[in-house]
Design brief:
heterodimer, A: alpha/beta, Glutathione S-transferase Yfyf (Class Pi), Chain A, domain 2, six-stranded mixed sheet, globular, B: about 200 residues, alpha/beta, four-stranded parallel sheet, 8 helices, 6 strands
Chain lengths: ~350, ~200
């Protein structure tokens, strides 16, 4: 799929902007603080109605404005869909988002914050794998929402030192939804593993063995009964600490480069390249599941990489469909559309 | 804060305590009532008092009623072997509107909810067990809501009632009639798929 056109009104630093991007590679260049990331954010908001930077809707409107709008045309093969999304401030100064959504729209975003997949807490890796699984399996995120509801209630109940009978219905729900989540995360991880093994050597230009594994208390088990049994084993600890101690909310991803934990391995450049490769590894699985290639939004993806590696990355990303790549300095890439951004305006470079 | 005469402020304040009514709606309702004829407003106030004075809980099913036992519990035509468990009287009314169910009800008065500190002892569970003890029930239908609280309540009751040897069923989750597959949300659709039935 690709974005045929986009219009921004009072979005971040843009008063109004009308942009008709190339259906292939778009290079967005310009000095810092001119609105490159803001434009990527608008593109993501158009596609999926969510920002990758903030959960506060009010941040999306231009400073001092009480509403913002993004509209545009999404195209897939021979279908096209016009979408308009808005955020506005209500009387009680809460913000509300509105607008239709497009069920086949998919977007993959890479930004500096993705380094936390490698260096951050397990929560960052769980958020990463849930994002991937959500783009592959549309029922993953609703199940995650339900899991969080069950978990919050179960944790509260644990603090009241409940009996076996009172906990049982919550154990059962935690195990049922939890196993569903673990199963999809595992399958998503396996798909990433296949792609990562191809992409990382291709972009680094070196023969490295990469490995990504899903780590859970359950080992290889796939039945809710296994999670129920694990819950039963930690029953006393759970009641003492007033917290659910097993389940997908405690799991993690293990990332290895040549057999060594990638969190401690390699230079910052290598880590950035691995984080980028993880995002690129998602393109094919999402394309196969959603029936359309996701739009790639790559924020400053080439920084900290040397010339050769940059060449490899540029070649790899052009195998996707529509790509938006930002960079502070002008880039020359054959066949790419170049755009120069300055002070909330945009022109073909 | 604007100045209101005391009786006006008092009514606005009282209306605001109703669910779904904020300060603006409360104000609008108050001024609407001020403009209505005296008889109409008296009728409303009498209706409010009457509902508290005359409505009681049925001692058998805990439905709201103006006579105890309620009409459903007293109806000799209804099947005493079939018992439908619901959370609130509203849910029972929804079931009744189908006109399909000819058994009896048991209103729990809520669902298990750790967030609100509601456990089994706060629901009409003991009363349910006492009813089943009388021994005429063949099947218990668990018709609590499909949210996490309702599901927990159904799971809890299922486990509790299993030793009694009655048939225990849970209402199905699935697609709304007249709906379009394309517009069904993913979760509903996958539940509908799970609960599929053989046809023909």
């Amino acid at each position: 799929m690709h974005i045929g056109s986009i219009q921004l009104i009072e979005f971040r630093n843009y008063r109004t902007l009308s942009y008709t991007p190339s259906p292939r590679l778009n290079l967005l260049t310009g000095p810092n603080a001119q609105g490159k990331t803001n434009l990527l954010e608008a593109l993501a908001f158009l596609l999926v109605g969510r920002s990758f930077r903030t959960s506060r809707l009010g941040d999306l409107a231009r400073w001092g404005e009480s509403s913002a709008a993004v509209s545009g045309e999404l195209r897939r093969q021979d279908t096209s869909r016009t979408i308009r999304r808005t955020v506005r401030m209500l009387e009680d100064s809460r913000w509300q988002a509105a607008g239709e959504s497009c069920p086949w729209a998919r977007v993959i975003v890479f930004g500096w914050q993705d380094l936390s997949i490698l260096t951050g807490m397990p929560a960052a890796r769980r958020a990463f794998i849930d994002g991937v699984a959500g783009r592959i399996y549309p029922s993953h995120l609703p199940a995650l929402g339900r899991y969080r509801q069950v978990l919050a209630r179960r944790n509260l109940l644990l603090r009241t030192r409940p009996g076996e009978a009172a906990l049982a219905p919550w154990d059962e729900q935690l195990a049922a939804v939890g196993t569903e989540l673990i199963d999809r995360r595992r399958r998503a991880t396996a798909m990433l593993q296949t792609e990562l093994a191809r992409i990382y050597p291709a972009v680094s230009g070196e023969r490295h063995k990469t490995e990504i594994r899903y780590r859970t208390e359950l080992g290889e088990a796939t039945e809710p009964a296994a999670l129920l049994a694990a819950i039963a084993r930690v029953r006393r600890d759970e009641i003492r600490r007033g917290q659910s101690l097993v389940g997908p909310h405690r799991d993690d991803l293990v990332l290895e480069l040549d057999g060594i934990d990638a969190r401690v391995f390699g230079s910052r450049g290598q880590q950035r390249l691995l984080a980028l490769s993880l995002r690129l590894a998602e393109v094919l699985p999402v394309r196969e599941a959603a029936g359309t290639t996701p739009v790639l939004l790559l924020d400053d993806a080439l920084s900290e990489l040397d010339g050769t590696v940059r060449g490899h990355v540029l070649r790899e990303i052009q195998t996707a469909e529509q790509v938006f790549l930002t960079a502070p300095e002008p880039l020359r890439v054959e066949g790419a559309a170049r755009w120069d951004l300055r002070a909330g305006g945009l022109c073909a470079a | 804060m604007a100045y209101y005469p005391e009786p006006v402020a008092r009514l606005i304040d009282a209306l605001q305590r109703l669910p779904g009514i904020g300060p603006k709606t409360a104000q609008r309702l108050t001024f609407f009532l001020l403009k209505r004829p005296f008889d109409e407003v008296r009728e409303l106030s009498e209706a409010l008092v009457a509902v508290k004075e005359r409505i009681v809980q049925c001692r058998t099913c805990f439905n709201v009623t103006d006579e105890d036992p309620c009409r459903i519990c007293a109806d000799p035509v209804r099947d005493t072997g079939l018992l439908c468990i619901v959370e609130e009287p509203n849910d029972m009314l929804a079931m009744e509107r189908t006109g399909e169910f000819r058994g009896r009800y048991h209103v729990l008065g809520g669902a298990l909810s750790p967030l609100d500190g509601i456990g089994p002892d706060d629901l009409k569970v003991r009363e349910l067990l006492a009813r089943l003890d009388a021994g005429r029930t063949r099947e218990v239908i668990l018709a609590t809501n499909p949210n996490v609280e309702g599901e927990a309540t159904a799971l809890y009751l299922a486990k509790l009632l299993r030793p009694l040897g009655v048939r225990i069923t849970r209402i199905a989750r699935g697609l709304p009639v007249g709906g379009d597959l394309e517009y069904a949300d993913q979760v509903t659709l996958s539940k509908a798929l799970e609960g599929r039935r053989e046809i023909g």
